[in-house]
Amino acid sequence: MTMDYKKYDIFSPMIFVLLVLVYLIFSEIAFHYHLHKLIGVDQFTIVVIVLGIAFYILGIVLSNYFLKNKEISVNTEKIDKIFSERLVLSVVIIGILLQIVNLIYLGGIPLFSGYLKARAATRIWLLSYLIFLPSINILIAKYDNKKYYLLFILGLLLFVSTGYRTTAMAIVISVLITLYYTRNLPWKYLILSIIAIFILLLAVGYIAVISIEWQTWSSTPIELLFYRAGYTLQVLDRAVFLQGSTHGQLLYNTLMGFFKSSDPRVIVGSTTLGYAHSTTSTIFGPALLDFGLYAMLLQMAIIGFIINLIYKVQANAKNIFIALYAIVMAHLIIWIETGPTDLVVFLYYLISIIILIYVVNLKKVGNE
């Protein structure tokens, strides 16, 4: 039995809304059982989340209105010239080699050491991830060669070894989305893939936590999953009542912090917890802390507009646009917990927009 994509499109932009609700359920479980003394959040925080979701949906609606009565076409000559199989394959291999060099430079496997993990996000790592993720998705989307799955697995293992859940999850989720739209996956393979992603999430997160040498408390992998959801929501709860307190520092350090060796998530921790600690605050938190509620709502509307625009283009043009959509959607899903505090993700959005402008044509047809 194969997927009926016209009837079921589980990776449409609305999947974000569903997963936010799932995240809230996970956090409520953590609050109910008071995992590691979690106590819950104020009702106003839930109102803020609902408003954020509403403006995300508004962005989707505005995007649909923008594309109304417009025919989408692409310049395939430009695409084929830029993204030749040999070039894309070479970039994938370079990304893998850079990650190997990074691990050699670190002198060990960061997944098994908190000290190494703290140093793992080097400039080599950034460049490796920046080129590997889009190139492996483009390679799989554009060229149907099962040998390329071996490169995907090798790259995944190398990035898992750094101990960062987000990069590993982004690679797996984005490739799954790419396969979903290009290979007409049977339901059973799709379900098995989702289960595998869930297990990977548990395993990498749990191993990374127990490998932190100074960690004193313990949890089961399932408890840790629920706890992280509840903990992050409590950080958001504090951010809701500290709106505008960072005065743009988070955005500035997201864009420039890597080059200055500063971490915006440490600023989140310092502001909401009162001490320096790398902390996430959901997709809604950073904008609230920087500029307040209106900025967060504007952010959500912009994200909804852009993600739906890329979604509509990939639905019509296929090709590399499936890969671009897979990448930004994978990170949007991850942002539900981590928030937009990663320079590399902003670069992916920028690259996607530049490619859209360069090769996509919108021709007005019919009447308004």
TrEMBL record:
Q: Could you name the domain of life of the organism this protein comes from?
A: Archaea
Transmembrane region positions?
A: 12-33, 45-67, 87-112, 124-141, 148-181, 187-209, 266-285, 291-311, 320-337, 343-362
Q: Which UniProt keywords apply?
A: Membrane, Transmembrane, Transmembrane helix
Q: Does the keyword Transmembrane helix apply?
A: yes
Q: Which Pfam families does the UniProt record give?
A: O_anti_polymase
InterPro entries this protein is in?
A: O_anti_polymase (IPR002760)
Q: Does the keyword Transmembrane helix apply?
A: yes
Protein name per the record:
Oligosaccharide repeat unit polymerase
Question: Which species expresses this protein natively?
Answer: Methanobrevibacter thaueri
